[in-house]
Amino acid sequence: MGKPSLELVGETLDLDRVVLLVVGAHLRAEVADRPIAYRLRDAILAWMEEACELDDETLPPVDVVVCTDVWWLNNNELRECPTISVGGPGINALSAYLGDKVPSAFVVDDSLIVQMDVELTDLLACVWGMNHEQTIAAADVFTERYLDSFMRGVLDRLGDADVSG
């Protein structure tokens, strides 16, 4: 049995086909981390366009949604979605929660971290740095090194593994 769908403004969001990018519900996170999350969203959409050979008439296999940690932590259905948390544990409760639950994939001591289960058992990742510039760098590392495998894991889980490359 799949997750329920959410009715949005004239559109239904199928939670079985959503990747979440989660930022903190904190003013600093809204100003600094939300733009990074939208950059990651754009990278995911570009990845899908290329890997899934999308054209103007083909919809992407998943929707990418940016939301705050409050939504993720308080909604059982959202916690089942593949998720990338953006921003440090000081301003993102999801990053704080996942800190000891998701292994480190890439670390630059006292600078930045990318946490992700590279085995893709859980489709969860965290990207953050000690400051804004380092959080951008962590998101770039994720995009360059881990986005492809993360998204292939998402599509495998959905049964849409027909991707190029």
Task: Report the sheet with the most strands, covering strand number, pairing sense and barrel closure.
Answer: 6 strands, mixed
> Could you name the CATH class?
Alpha Beta
- Total domains: 1
Structural class: alpha/beta
CATH topology heading:
Chitobiase, domain 2
Measure the end-to-end span.
Answer: 31 Å
As residue ranges, the low-confidence spans are none
Count of DSSP-assigned helices: 4
Helical percentage: 25-40%
Could you give a quick summary of the protein structure above?
With 165 residues, the chain is an alpha/beta fold. It has helices at 27-51, 69-73, 93-98, 132-158, and strands at 5-8, 11-14, 18-23, 63-68, 83-86, 104-108, 112-116, 124-129. The chain has one domain (14-155): 2-Layer Sandwich (Chitobiase, domain 2), CATH 3.30.379.
Task: For the structure shown, list the relevant keywords.
single chain; 165 residues; alpha/beta; Chitobiase, domain 2; six-stranded mixed beta sheet; two-stranded antiparallel ribbon; 4 helices
Task: Give an overview in words.
The chain has 165 residues and is of the alpha/beta class. The chain has one domain: Chitobiase, domain 2 (2-Layer Sandwich). It is 38% helix and 24% strand. It contains 4 helices and 8 strands; from the N terminus they run βββαβαβαβββα. The protein has helices at residues 27-51, 69-73, 93-98, 132-158, and strands spanning 5-8, 11-14, 18-23, 63-68, 83-86, 104-108, 112-116, 124-129. The strands form 2 sheets. Strands 4-3-5-8-7-6 form a 6-stranded mixed β-sheet. A hairpin with a 7-residue loop joins strand 7 (112-116) and strand 8 (124-129). It is globular. The relative contact order is 0.17. The model has no long low-confidence stretch (mean pLDDT 89).
